[in-house]
Amino acid sequence: SSVPTDLTVSSTDNVKGENRIKVLEDQIKLLKLEIGKRDTLLELNKKESEERIRKAEHTATEADKAKKVIEESAKLRMDLQTQEMNKIQSAISDQLREVTVRQQHLEDVNQKLREKADIAKLRLESFKYDPTRLS
């Protein structure tokens, strides 16, 4: 067997060192690939999250607009109902006034008729039949 010399040891060490460097370079390449994949996934997740946020904001904006439209519509309906009720109330008040005026008129006519009936009654009571007066 041969005894290793400085030349054979350094040559073997050199090959081992080169292999080690090659392995480390390969590991660095793999790590860089993994980092690239991770960065790509992070970017995709970021974009998806931003899109979900945009959609949620859009939905919230649309819901707010719809709420405002519904509130305005309800207010307009209430205003129209209030106007209609005011018209109805006014018409009822006018009819009630007409009925009151008519009732007062009828009471006045009734009072005059009673007075005339009382006069007629008094005349009839004071009337004396005289057959000679007619001939």
Which short descriptors sum up this protein?
135 residues; mainly alpha
> First CA to last CA: what distance?
193 Å
Report the sheet with the most strands, covering strand number, pairing sense and barrel closure: none
The residue ranges in which pLDDT falls below 50 over 5 or more consecutive positions are: none
Q: Could you report the average pLDDT, rounded to the nearest whole number?
A: 91
Task: Calculate Rg over CA atoms.
Answer: 57 Å
Helix content: over 70%
Task: Tell me the total number of β-strands.
Answer: 0
| Count of DSSP H/I helices | 2
What sequence of helices (H) and strands (E) makes up the elements? HH
* Global morphology: rod-shaped
Structure overview:
This protein has 135 residues and is mainly α. The protein is 93% helix and 0% strand. The chain is built from 2 helices and no strands. It has helices at residues 6-126, 131-134. The longest helix has 121 residues, at 6-126. The mean pLDDT is 91.
Concise overview:
With 135 residues, this protein is an all-alpha fold. Helix content is 93%, strand content 0%.
